[in-house]
């Protein structure tokens, strides 16, 4: 266990898998010793004090309540009770801190809907996978993509999935008009009733193309940042660089990757490099700034990365070399 990961955990800046890793470690003797030392240090600092006129909590009963609350999540519960007798009063207040940490973790997991029964579909680099959701909606995942969802959706409740990567959704319309929500990594969401659309969601950026129907896109956490999309609309959003735009495109071209093809329509080589990085996990270097801005149009096979590189090289007169996971693109 690294101190860096522990610090990110207490700052609530970890992924769900990392949170579980930390919680599992807290249940070991080493983890218990770390907690005791950390909490003993924190609660004995000069600037820390308990709430005024507050009695020390009953740690045992409080921890039992925490266990009961967390049982449904099947999350590891920290039990520092065996150390209470030698840490005394400060440790009883430390137990409050531990309880808050656990409950904060539960809230974090709950926000992401990371229940133990959730299903995860993960594709490898360059691989495409298809799956059917509990409501009959169909999803095609591009390479290096991850989709999380509950295996059971009940009538009258919102259908929710969490996407990290690229996917094409064909959403079924339900009799009770239940909403369908796609959560993206940059805290943007897509809300639909019944439609077909392509989503690229990587880190802070997202690209959404509507093929059919109607969707409402919420960008970031601000409620007012929403847009009603029409078929043929492409919306791009990068919440870190504050880059946003909407344009009209051929939606079939944007989702052609499902059929083993890549269709470029005025696509810059910088964008092509990003596609290769996202889908195949490689680093692409284009040293010439003008070449990065050069746009290309055409269709090339998408069976493998080597096929794509050969197609780019022959169709657009480029010199492409590859060494391990690094690709260099130059003019011929």
Calculate the mean pLDDT score and round it: 76
Q: Oligomerization state of this entry?
A: single chain
Number of strands: 18
Low-confidence stretches: 42-60, 69-114
The assigned CATH architecture of the largest domain is Sandwich
Structural class: alpha+beta
Radius of gyration: 25 Å
Helix content: 25-40%
> Shape from CA axes?
globular
Could you give a quick summary of the protein structure above?
The protein is an alpha+beta fold and 332 residues long. The protein contains nine helices and 18 strands. 32% of the residues lie in helices and 30% in strands.
Description:
- It comes from Spirosoma soli.
- Residues 122-215 form the FecR protein domain.
- Keywords: Membrane, Transmembrane, Transmembrane helix.
- The chain crosses the membrane at residues 93-111.
- InterPro entries: FecR, FecR_C, Ferrdict_sens_TM.
- This protein has three domains: 3-111, no CATH class; 119-253, Jelly Rolls (Sandwich); 260-331, Phage tail protein beta-alpha-beta fold.
- Helix 4 (59-71) packs parallel to helix 5 (84-111).
- The longest helix has 28 residues, at 84-111.
- The protein is built from nine helices and 18 strands.
- By secondary structure, the protein is α+β, with helices and mostly antiparallel strands.
- A hairpin with a 7-residue loop joins strand 10 and strand 11.
- Strands 1, 2, 3, 4, 5, 6, 7, 8, 9, 10, 11, 12 and 13 form a 13-stranded mixed sheet that branches.
- The model is unreliable at 42-60 and 69-114 (pLDDT under 50).
- The two termini are 49 Å apart.
């Amino acid at each position: 266990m690294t101190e860096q990961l522990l610090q990110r955990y207490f700052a609530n800046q970890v992924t769900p898998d990392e949170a579980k890793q930390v919680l599992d470690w807290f249940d070991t003797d080493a983890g218990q010793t770390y907690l005791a030392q950390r909490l003993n240090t924190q609660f004995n600092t000069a600037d820390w004090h308990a709430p005024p006129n507050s009695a020390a909590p009953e740690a045992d009963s409080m921890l039992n309540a925490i266990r009961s609350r967390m049982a449904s999540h099947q999350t590891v519960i920290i039990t520092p009770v065996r150390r209470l007798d030698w840490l005394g009063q400060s440790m009883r207040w430390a137990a409050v801190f531990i309880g808050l940490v656990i409950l904060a973790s539960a809230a974090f997991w709950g926000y992401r809907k990371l229940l133990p029964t959730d299903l995860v579909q993960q594709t490898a680099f360059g691989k495409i996978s298809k799956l059917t959701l509990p409501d009959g909606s169909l999803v095609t995942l591009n390479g290096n993509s991850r989709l999380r969802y509950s295996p059971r959706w009940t009538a009258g409740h919102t259908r929710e999935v969490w996407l990290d990567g690229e996917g094409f959704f064909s959403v079924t319309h339900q009799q009770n008009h239940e909403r369908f929500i796609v959560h993206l990594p940059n805290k943007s969401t897509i809300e639909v009733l019944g439609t077909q659309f392509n989503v690229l969601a990587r880190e802070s950026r997202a690209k959404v193309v509507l093929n059919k129907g109607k969707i409402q896109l919420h960008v970031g956490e601000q409620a007012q940042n929403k847009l009603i999309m029409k078929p043929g609309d492409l919306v791009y959003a990068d919440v870190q660089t504050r880059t946003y735009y909407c344009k009209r495109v051929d939606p079939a071209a944007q989702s052609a990757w499902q059929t083993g093809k890549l269709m470029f329509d005025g696509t810059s080589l910088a964008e092509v490099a990003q596609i290769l990085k996202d889908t195949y996990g490689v680093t692409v270097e284009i040293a010439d700034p003008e070449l990065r801005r050069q746009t290309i149009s055409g269709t090339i096979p998408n069976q493998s990365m080597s096929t794509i590189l050969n197609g780019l090289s022959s169709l657009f007169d480029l010199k492409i070399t590859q060494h391990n996971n690094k690709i260099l693109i130059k003019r011929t």
